[in-house]
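We store sequence with structure; for instance:
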Amino acid sequence: MDMNEHIIQGGVARHLFSMGLVEATHLHWGHDTPHTFIGGVNPIDGTWHTPDLEVSALVQLSFHEGIGDHRTVLVDV
């Protein structure tokens, strides 16, 4: 989802968390929070799912590997 705001700290994120959804990408970041829009500084693209799905692998491709101006995310559930 292109949220146009931080995927953990934004208002939409708070609403999705309150509905019981889980955001998958931030669990795999490590120390460096990646920006997901080529001209941005924050992660604004999130992958939301219900807690009963198990994400077994996830990768965010670099910008030149996708077709747009956001990072492509591949998720194995």
